[in-house]
Amino acid sequence: MSDDERRSGYDGTGPGAITPDGCAVELYARLPVNDEPEVIQQAVPPGARILELGCGVGRVTHPLLDRGFTVTAVDESAEMLARVRGARTVRSPIERLDLGERFDVVMLASFLVHAGDVAVRRGLLDTCRRHVAADGCVLLQREGEDWWRNIPRERPLGADGLVRIASATPVGDGVNSVLVEYEFPDARWTQTFLARPLTTAAFEQALAESGLAVDRYLTEDRTWVRARPAAG
User: Fold this and answer.
1) Where residue 140 sits, what CATH number does that domain have?
2) Do 169 and 222 belong to one domain?
3) Are strands 161-172 and 175-184 parallel, antiparallel or unpaired?
4) 5 in a domain, yes or no?
5) Is 6 among the domain residues?
6) CA atoms within 13 Å, Cβ hemisphere of 107
7) What is the 3-state secondary structure (H, E, C) of the chain?
């Protein structure tokens, strides 16, 4: 899939290249680094080999490299990967990735586990399981269970930006079509994507179907999770 082809139900507008899932490369290059590197560092062994699935422009990749981790960064967008420095990069849809390697840590952030298509979600989690070492772990970022209430809502983004969840429209089978708007003094972007909200029970069941089990919820809001290969 080229960077010009959109996935069904996904779109984006604004300056610069737009990836198949509607992400704007120039926007992602502006997004601030939050507490993700600290959460990850505290959850994994020092110097671990990390497989980062859906790395984007390297917003989290680069801080992890600075902390002494070895990172293999995967994304389906060549435009995104061109911004990544210092890591081994692989261009591939996550659900079809098979490197024939195992890693200390496999990371699936950016709420990708909430893919609207159940088969895609299963493919993402199967990729995590396929690439994690027997004694390794998978780090996942999931939505807060109340995230789709009180919409529209907005919050500051960095020093001068604003992100607004403008709408979340049910489109059937438990899936929402979500519209997000990003505003800066000099530019505006939108992204439309499909998201499937998951209760804790549904999330843990999805992990189990791919041979993974929750080891620990890493943050108070339970949005960051460490999972391990299930016993047996």
Assistant:
1) 3.40.50.150
2) no
3) antiparallel
4) no
5) no
6) 29
7) CCCCCCCCCCEEECCCCECCCCCEHHHHHHCCCCCHHHHHHHHCCCCCEEEEECCCCCCCHHHHHHCCCEEEEEECCHHHHCCCCCCEEEECCHHHCCCCCCEEEEEECCCHHHECCHHHHHHHHHHHHHHEEEEEEEEEECCCCCCCCCCCEEEEECCCEEEEEEEEEEEECCEEEEEEEEEECCEEEEEEEEECCCCHHHHHHHHHHCCEEEEEECCCCCCEEEEEECCC
pLDDT tens readout for residues 189-208: 999 999 999 999 999 999 99
Q: What is the pLDDT of residues 41-70, one digit of tens each?
A: 999 999 999 999 999 999 999 999 999 999
Q: Clarify whether residues 173 and 121 are in a common domain.
A: no
Radius of gyration of the chain (CA): 17
Q: Report how many domains make up the chain.
A: 2
